[in-house]
Amino acid sequence: MIAGLATLAYLILPNVVVPAFSFNKPNGRFNYTWQRFSTDAWTDPCGVAGLCGSLVLSLQLAVWATLGATVLGTLIAFVRARHRFRARGAVGSLVFLPLAMPEVVMAASPATLFLNVGVERLPHFRPDFTPSPPPAAHAPRHPR
C-alpha cells in the first residue's frame, strides 16, 4: 500500500508543483527555486511573446482533430457494424489502440520509478508478469 501511495504521489506531484510555481517571481529565466509570491503570470497571461498565438493554434488543431476523429470513427463504426470483411479484427484492434495507450504510458512511469529505486521484481508477480498462484491460505483443500 505504501508503494502504491508513493507511486500515486510521484504521478500527481507535477500537477501540484506547476500551478504552485506559477505564483513565483523568479530572479532569472528559470523557475526552479521559490523566490517571492507574485500574480504576474495570471494578470498578464499574454505577456510572453507567442503564448496566446500558440494557445489559439492548439485550440484550432484540437477542434479539427476532434471533427476528423468524429467523422472517421462514425464511418468505421458503420462499416464494422454492417459488413463482414477479412480485416475486421485488425480494424477493431486499431480502434482500441488509442484507448489502451494511456494505460501503457501510466504503467511505464511507475516501472521506471521502481527500477530506479532498485525494485526488480514485485512480490506477487512472476518475471513473465503472469499472476502468481494464490497464497496457501486460499489454496483449495485436498480431498480426504
From TrEMBL:
Domain named ABC transmembrane type-1: residues: 55-144
InterPro entries associated with the record: Bact_Polyamine_Transport (IPR051789), MetI-like (IPR000515), MetI-like_sf (IPR035906)
Protein name, as recorded: Putative polyamine transport protein
Compartments (UniProt record): Cell membrane
GO annotation terms (biological process): transmembrane transport
Membrane spanning residue stretches: 61-79, 91-115
Broad class of the protein's primary localization: membrane
Keyword Membrane part of the UniProt annotation: yes
Entry membrane topology: Multi-pass membrane protein
Keywords assigned: Cell membrane, Membrane, Transmembrane, Transmembrane helix, Transport
PANTHER family, A to Z: PUTRESCINE TRANSPORT SYSTEM PERMEASE PROTEIN POTI (PTHR43848:SF2)
Cellular compartments per GO CC: plasma membrane
